[in-house]
Amino acid sequence: MSRIAFKYSSHPLRRWFIQQSLDFPWRTIIIALLATLFLGSGVRFFLIDDDMMKILPKNLDSRIAWDAIQEEFGSTEVIFIAFGEKGKSIFIPDALAALWDLNEELEDNHEVEELTSITTATRMDNVDGFMEIEDLQPFRNLSEEEVGEIQAYLDKNPTLKKRFVSQDSEYFMVTVQPYSSEGLNQFRDAVVSIADPILSKYEIYYGGQAYVTGTMPELIRDDVIGLARIGILIMVIILLLNLRSISGVAMVLMVIGLSLFAMIGFMGWVYHLTGSDRFLFTLANTSMPIILLTIANSDGVHVVSKFFKEMRKKDETRLAVASTMDSLLIPIFLTSITTIAAFATMTLSPLEPLFGYGIVIGAGIAWAWLLSSFMLPAVISLKKWNKGSKAITEPSIFEKIIDKLGKVVLTHPKYVFSSGAIFVIIGLSGLSKVIVDVNMRNFFEPGSEIRDTMDFMDEKMTGTVDIRVRIEGDMKDPQTLSSMRILQEKMEENEKVITSFSVANIVEQMHRTVMDDKPEFETVPSNREKVNNLFTMYSMSGDPDDFSSLIDYDYKVGLISAFSKVMTTKEIFAFVESMNEQVKANMNPNLIVDFTGMIVILRDLVIMIVRSSALSIIFSLIVIGIIASIFFKRILWGILAVIPLTSAVIINFGFMGYFGIELSHITAILSSIIIGVGVDFSIHYIAQFRRLSRTIDKNKLSRAVVEDVGYPIILDAGSNMGLGALLFSVFLPIQYIGGLMVFAMLATSIGTLTVLSALAELLKNRLVERNS
Amino acid sequence: MILQKCWLILFSTSIIFGQTGTEIAKMVDERKTPKDMSNVTKMVLKNSKGKTRTNLMVSKSMDGNKKQIIWFLEPKDDKGVAFLKIEYDNKDDEMRMWLPAFKKIRRISSKKKGDAFMGSDLSYEDMSSRDLQQNNYKRLDDKIINDKDCFVLQVTPTKEAESSYSKHISWIDKSSLLAVKEESFDKRGALKKKKEFSYNKIKEYYVMERVFVEDIQKNHTTEVIFEKIQVDMGVKANIFQEKNLKRLPAID
To answer: How many helices (H) and strands (E) does chain A have?
Structure first.
């Protein structure tokens, strides 16, 4: 059939699109594949890295202080290795020999900057007037008596003991500091591969931020692969139920696969070209492939199912494709653009990964739209379809369900509307119950390795949540040192803070040693000269590098490090507030004091998550309202388009409040997803309302719209059930996203068919458009 | 100043060929050294981030540095701190410090040879003389360093030496028998320190005037410059007593 013979569309732009697919199918397919291949080739630059610190903007005070500490004192993200045996004392020669071996092996590893354990620690003694600084564990093989001496020394120095031994003396702990905070997954693997064989006789626990961060890439990768498999399986089932054609399913899967490949490659390219941490694949991004998979599926399935419907009428492939694309190009474009807009508002988030999330998923959605609009119809047009197949001749289960559902909704609109309204009211009352929490522990299920280790560290050791206080001032000034000690004591008054240490502790210990080991001199000396004398004396007999993690080279910056058990958000806020008050009340105002560490990071994250969620909701609703107003040429349509979405967001957050699902940097993306994906329903409804209003009497309009639009809406909602795959994630927040999204999709689709249709019905006199 | 014992080498100026490593080491060891020495020592430490610390000290020594007393002049915080060291052949060395702020003299431990002196890259071992009997010397291929034809010796400490190093490679100028460069390797065999030496002739002695040490593993350097060097001035043995730690000498 000649090209001229076809009038694919009355609109020139749509006609051009359709021409590319039908008149030049091979060219279109090859260009699409090559472009996807080029974009996807960025996958080699794609990097998984879930470092909590990289979530925060670089200009945030706590991040600035953190970065300064990393620069001055080396990485504070460490791995803790605890080993021992429950119920047995660890103070035995064999355990110290294993500790020695572990230190030797770890010291040989070029990724290890520093180790802290009994083996690397020094002891300071006053022996017959001698100031002796010696290794706490001088040899590998020790006698029972020598082990007893080490234990006695640690008992005399409880601050030191807490850093090396569990509270019940059943486990030893080694702290391993990496050279760099980059590539913690390799560091983690190296440490585990060294420690596991040496400590095979003992129970081993690994913990610390570096371990969690180092373990996350593998967990995330495995999780994403697992979720993608489940997601695709769900999609295939939905597609088979709906399309009943293996070729049709394969074509939709092709769009999904290519879109995913292009999106991951795009992320790699952007990371490569910008070097920005915003484009690292983090835990927060875990949901991204499934969401794109769902959206791409939605685009593809619309095209294929509409094509089958058209085939029933037209009985000719090219005509059916042309008709399909003529009616779907605009809705697919509109739903894509509004979804992209909703995700694009994530770029306003102060949280770094959410910026990248918004951009990258936007690119993925755009690619899915391009493939669905050009490549998919081209592929469909090349296939020789069996016109007698059930897929083409009979309506699908979906169509039958929708027919029945449509009748229910239309027969009992008041009940349906009332139910929706009740849900919204319930949701509203649940909003105040939403808890914001970003504790990593709560991201893992009980029984998982990381959660068990965190619990172990909390119960037996020092805890894993660190608090760092960077103090800039004269570190030889007794006032400075004393105020550091007071601050430490204040910190330790909190029952969850297990230990703290600083150079002030060392000065106290040196003072006592110089003063003939009299306990009453375990204080900061009274004048600067004395403090200086102590440091000088230490440098004559010990290694000043021993202080490198506590004080800088110039004695101008000191670091207080403290460790605490996991705190709730409320406890974190109260703790940081009380510390700030303490600094204001008792510390020399000439000192520059910066609080940071994971505890402050968590507080700042909480604040930002709340801000991020609020910004995301407000701006995405505004942007979508504006887009809908422009496309549908009425502000009223813009307002109506966002009403079901607002209801769904309220219900979602309300349910989070009721079910105790924490708002975190992972679940903060929910509102964008709900709005971005849910807006499609409103778009479909409004587009159909406007189209039918030109030809159907306004008294029969709403019924006609619901009957007609029900199919694409429920088809969309059905396709979006792929989000349910997230329920199978190993990360709890991702599971929550999965569950809430499934619910939100039902809420928005039903909301559109009820709330929106009821409002449209009420306002029909103002909304109806007539052809002149 | 203490450093000068190990590398301050003055020997015959004849060019020697065909010696074994041990013979070369013996010749180096048997060089003539001053009876006593005094100087002002400037020590500049620099860490991996380019931050520096500078110490200025007055030092007097005798018996090839077996007795040495040091008074700290700078930094200002350290002025008045003093250090006395007396080495013994058959017992632990004696090291004492005067802490003016405490008005106390404290003995400090001298057990660990590998400990750094004053936070520098020089350990007490680096600053002590090497016992010929406690090291094995192997002559390697000769090399030319800075236009100087050098013997190259591999020095391997024996177990008795209780060294913190596994070996040293020393470059010894053939014409003066002075060590001009040395590399020291840690127990694992990895390069730990690079050292460079330069000398000045005072009276009939070649006296070290500068040593530069780089700790490769810590990326930290130490430069020691000896100024106002005086030799054979008749320093008396009774100066190396505790009471003199409290008396900062006048600087010329």
So the answer is: 28, 10
A18 and A90 inside one domain: no
Interchain proximity A527–B51, CB inside 8 Å? no
Look up the domain containing B235 and give its range.
4-245
Contact A595, A580 (CB under 8 A): yes
Which CATH number fits the domain that encloses residue A426? 1.20.1640.10
* Spatial CA neighbour of A514 closest among A238, A79, A131: A131
Position B252 in a domain: no
- For residue B213, the SS3 value is strand
Residues A616 and A756 reside in one and the same domain: yes
A633 plus A561 within the same structural domain: no
Smallest CA–CA distance from B74 into chain A, residue:
A536
Looking at residue A264, its pLDDT comes to 94
When divided into structural domains, chain A yields a total of 3
Out of A515, A529, A544, the one facing B101 most closely (by C-beta) is A529
Name the residue type at position A313: K
Q: What is the largest CA-CA distance in chain A?
A: 109
Q: Is residue B161 part of a domain?
A: yes
Q: Cβ of B72 and A133 within 8 Å?
A: no
User: Is A202 found in the same domain as A222?
Assistant: no
CATH of the domain at B28: 2.50.20.10
Q: Which of A536, A538, A543 to mutate to test the interface with B (most CBs of B within 10 A)?
A: A536
Put simply, the answer to whether B72 touches A130 (Cβ < 8 Å) is no
A306 and A263 within one domain: yes
Decide if B229 is inside a domain. yes
Query: How far, in Å, are A185, A229, A405, B215 from residue A281 at the CA level?
Result: 14, 19, 40, 39
A139 and A283 inside one domain: no
Interface of A with B (CB under 8 A): 108, 129-134, 476, 514-515, 525, 527-530, 532-534, 536-537, 539-545, 552-554
> B251 lies in a domain?
no
> Is there a domain that residue A132 lies in?
yes
> Using CA atoms, how far apart are residues A300 and A43, in angstroms rounded to an integer?
24
Average pLDDT over residues A400-427: 71
The number of folded domains in chain B is 1
Categorize the per-residue pLDDT at B10 as very low, low, confident or very high, splitting at 50, 70 and 90.
Answer: very low
ipTM for the predicted complex comes to: 0.80
Nearest to A533 among B81, B118, B188 (CB): B81
**Among the ranges A276-290, A365-379, B59-73, B152-166, which has the highest mean pLDDT value?**
A365-379
Q: CA separation (Å) from A419 to A91, A406, A657, A658, A705?
A: 66, 16, 20, 18, 21
- Cβ pair B115:A542 closer than 8 A: yes
Token look-up 């190990």 returns: B6
pLDDT of residue B251: 61
Please identify, among A207, A235, A255, the residue that sits at the C-terminal boundary of a domain: A207
Judged on CB neighbours under 10 Å (0-12, 13-18, 19+), A145 is exposed
Strand partners, A195: none
Q: Is residue A446 part of a domain?
A: no
Tokens of A390: 């059930």
Instruction: Tell me the nearest-neighbour CA distance from A173 into chain B, angstroms.
Output: 25
The confidence band for A2, taking pLDDT boundaries of 50, 70 and 90, is very low
Note the residue count of chain B. 252
From CA A466, how far away is CA A560, in angstroms rounded? 10
> CA nearest A487: which of A537, A433, A536, A524?
A524
Which residues in chain A have their CB less than 8 angstroms from residue B119's CB?
539, 543-545
Q: Give the DSSP per-residue string, A646-705.
A: HHHHHHHHHHHHHHTPPB-TTGGGHHHHHHHHHHHHHHHHHHHHHHHHTTS-HHHHHHHH
How many residues are present in chain A?
Answer: 772
Structural domain boundaries, residue A736: 12-50+215-433+603-767
**Residue A109 sits in the same domain as residue A190:** yes
